[in-house]
């Protein structure tokens, strides 16, 4: 086995699916920039904005139960070509929307259209790369896709001022169509690898029950905090000025990309057997949880470095994808990946929405803003620690 990744395979097979994943990250995060313009044009209330976000995430989460088996049966090329068509339709509808209801419907369609991007990229990696290289290839995939989240910040703000949000979504529709065309032209057709096991049987597999709770809770916290609550924490709980908070969040996004590259390379060199990969995933996930305890209890001057560590150690929960695929039969890898995605998305939806309710309830009882945000932050970290303990206790006997 060579030590380098074949360039032709990276360009011809990995990049088209990574581009789809990058597009999904861009569209998922772009609402933060568009929110003021949409509120001005449609008079949207905060609850309406929340409904639009929830529609997108609900579509992503619910579709995983269908996407996983479809990937195993039809392969990622056919599934992505079908779903990206819905993303193009949803983006066009969003660009032409004349009411809040049309915005919600459009975001729901976009969510359905992008539902296979993450899962499909990982499934494609399992088909065309040796299993011992999956930690590195998956890490490269998510690191490059992370550029989509970065593009949804300052670059999107600049483009919004230049052409407006409707033209932006027309451009996104064109990008989705272009990615679909790229996949159709560059990616060879694959034969389905579906096996006799149903998704429920995959869920009951000992490796899934060991890995899924910690991975889902950690990824859900990452989705909730990077997407919304980290900024609220920095501005309201710690009283940092918006410019300082924005700089820390940019550092967080960059640290996520760096962490995926660095720890993907580490896993590729030191954890090619399943036992070592299990240990590395456990240790990095423990470090991710420890970073949250440090953030909740740390002073304002330490927040920048601590959020950077938080971003670096997101590699731990992400290594769970490569680990789980290596512990299950190849015929059900799509369903296994989809189950991890489903857990992460449901956890993210519940935490993103539930944190606001908890914080408001605590403040209504007279808690200061800092304490009202610190308590749930610590509670989430405690739940993650319990889930990680479950991962250690349920470690498969073969490891």
TrEMBL record:
It is found in: Endomembrane system. Keywords: Membrane, Transmembrane, Transmembrane helix. The keyword Aminoacyl-tRNA synthetase does not apply. Signal peptide: none annotated. It comes from the Bacteria. Residues 4-399 form the Major facilitator superfamily (MFS) profile domain. InterPro entries: MFS, MFS_dom, MFS_trans_sf, OPA_Antiporter. SUPFAM superfamilies: MFS general substrate transporter. It is a multi-pass membrane protein. The chain crosses the membrane at residues 7-27, 47-67, 79-97, 103-122, 134-156, 168-191, 203-225, 245-266, 278-300, 306-324, 336-355, 375-393. This is MFS transporter. It comes from Seohaeicola nanhaiensis.
